[in-house]
Each structure stands twice: as C-alpha cells, then as structure tokens.
Specification:
Elements (H helix, E strand, L loop, with lengths): L4 H10 L3 H10 L6 H15 L4 H18 L2 H18 L2 H15 L6 H11 L5 H10 L2
Helix pairs in contact: 2-4, 3-4, 3-5, 4-5, 5-6, 7-8
C-alpha cells in the first residue's frame, strides 16, 4: 500500500483509535517521512486550534501516534509541540509544560527552531517553574 501523503493523512485521521492508526502505519509502504508527516499534522492542528478544538486535538493525538510509531526524535518533538499548543489553549498548563519541555529537550541541541520556541516560551512564562523562566529569558530576542 503506497498512498499519497495527503491520502495517507486523510486515512490516518479517519481511524477511530490508536490501534487503527498504528495498524495503518504498519501496512503502509513505503513509510512516509515522519518529520514531514508530523509537521503537516501539526500545521493542520494549529490551523484548527481556535475554530475546532476537538478536531485539532484529534489531529495532535494522531501526530503523537505517528511520532511514537516512527521513533524519530524530531517527529516526537514536533508532535509534543502540537499537543502542547492544544493543552495551552485548553488551560491545562501543567500538561502543556510537559509537552513543551519535551519539545525543548530536542531543540535545545538544535538551534534551528529556537526563535519560534522562544515566542511560545514568552507566552507562558508566568505558569512555569523559575528554572524554565530563566531558559525562556535567555531566548528572548
């Protein structure tokens, strides 16, 4: 089975459970680039965040499943970021912080995304521990 990128995303989002999503990914060949695939899901989730939170959350969960399946560290960081955005919007700041810290753990050794992450850090510095605030202050541009 080798569906196009967009068709595979559509199929993945039609799955009703993690088990269905993982089964679909298992039988997909060739496997999609996990970073590109998860990045696309994050973009869709972010786009829907303010208009359809339920669907945005479903997409973020699918991104987490794809990232876990792929075992790709960058894909996992991007998926955590997508879910963190949802959790922040829902006001679940402690869970949001866990997801953002997972993202930051990956990108702290890779400076390509630091400016974008810094923007998010500045938004929620009032909800995080002092050690994280220090890190966020270092990133302010």
């Amino acid at each position: 089975m080798s569906p196009s990128h967009d068709a595979l995303i559509e199929q993945l989002l039609s799955c009703r459970s993690q088990a269905e999503r993982l089964a679909l990914l298992e039988k997909t060949s060739p496997r999609p680039d996990p970073v590109l695939f998860v990045s696309t899901l994050k973009e869709q989730s972010d786009f829907l965040l303010y208009n359809n939170l339920t669907q945005a959350k479903e997409i973020a969960i699918a991104a987490l499943d794809v990232a876990k399946f792929s075992q790709d560290a960058k894909a996992q960081a991007i998926a955590s970021w997508a879910d963190g955005n949802i959790l922040f919007y829902q006001g679940n700041y402690s869970a949001c912080l866990v997801r953002y810290e997972q993202t930051i753990a990956y990108y702290s050794s890779n400076l390509e995304m630091m400016p974008r992450l810094a923007k998010h850090c500045c938004v929620y510095t009032s909800i995080v521990p002092v050690s994280f605030r220090r890190w966020a202050n270092m990133l302010r541009l």
